[in-house]
Structure formats: C-alpha cells, structure tokens
Amino acid sequence: MTALKKALSGYVAVPMTNVVIDVIEWFEEVPHDMVVRCAGCGKRLFNFKSRREFTFSGASWLSGYYVERLCPKCKRLNTIDVTATKGYPIGDSKRWVCECGGFLGKIDAPRGRIMLSCRCNHEIRVSAIDAAQAAIDDFLSIPF
Ligand SMILES: [Zn+2]
Ligand SMILES: [Zn+2]
C-alpha cells in the first residue's frame, strides 16, 4: 500500500470524480461536514458543510450546503452557498474569487458543483449533493 493510499484509506471515493471525502460530522443521517481531498495527490481542497433551517418546535431540514475553502494565495477562509437540490440554484454560476484576487473555483449553481484544478493538475469537479450521496451509500453498505 502506498503512503497516499494509506493516508486516504478511511475516505470514500465520490463516483465519476477525482475526489475522496471523509464525513467528520453527521446530523440526522445527512453529512453535516465533509472534508474533500484530491484522489490524485491527497491534498485537502475544501469542505462541504450543510445548512439547516429550524422550525419553532425544533424540527429541522436541510436547506443547502456551502463550500468552505482556504484561499491558496492569502489563506483566508472563504465560503459560498450551493444548492442541496439539483435544478434549484442558490446564487449564480460564477468564478469564485477571494477578496485578495485568489482563484477559488468555478461554481455551477444549478448543480451545486465546484470546479477547479488541483496543484497536481487533476481536474476537480464535484457537487455537494453527489459527495453527500456517496457518503450515505458508503455508510449504508457497512454490514450491521
Ligand atoms: Zn491533487
Ligand atoms: Zn485570498
């Protein structure tokens, strides 16, 4: 086993992408905080986190996700909201840029997807929805 494989062994591959994820927090069977790494080099790229709305009685539902990414240039933590339901965009599709001008990624709003190139040249293209689904599928595949 290579060092990279070993380092990523607890991670879940997201199908059709170049990323692996690790859920560090669940909330009511939904991944609440996912660390996303490049499957090619292991670099930590960003986190997908969920947003929840609460009713007065304390019930809650998933209202969206957001991407939390450290600017590669100035190390500021940036966040941007993305949809939890494909076809219902939150915000607009755009180039996501830090205050300092550092490039953070391209956002595809209707799919809730982020696209960027890793330092190892792997093309990263993944939605929060697909990452969460991969984590749930993986969790359900564990025999009880
Ligand atoms: Zn990489
Ligand atoms: Zn920056």
Order of helices and strands: HEEEEEEEEEEH
| Mean pLDDT level | 95
Number of domains: 1
Q: Which word captures the global form?
A: globular
Question: What is the helical fraction, as a range of percent?
Answer: 10-25%
Distinct helical segment count: 2
Kindly report how far apart the N and C termini lie: 27 Å
Tell me the fraction of residues in β-strands, as a range.
over 45%
Total beta-strand segments: 10
Quick synopsis:
With 144 residues, the chain is mainly beta.
Describe the protein's architecture and organization.
The two termini are 27 Å apart. The chain has two helices and ten strands, in the order H-E-E-E-E-E-E-E-E-E-E-H. The strands form two sheets. Strands 1-2-3-4-5-6 form a six-stranded antiparallel beta sheet, with helices on one face. Strands 7-8-9-10 form a four-stranded antiparallel beta sheet. It has helices spanning 3-7, 128-141, and strands spanning 12-13, 19-27, 30-38, 44-54, 60-70, 77-82, 94-97, 103-108, 113-117, 123-127. The model has no long low-confidence stretch (mean pLDDT 95). The chain has one domain. It is mainly beta. Helix content is 13%, strand content 47%. The structure holds zinc ion (2 copies). Residues 71, 73-74, 76, 98, 100, 102 line the site of one zinc ion (ZN).
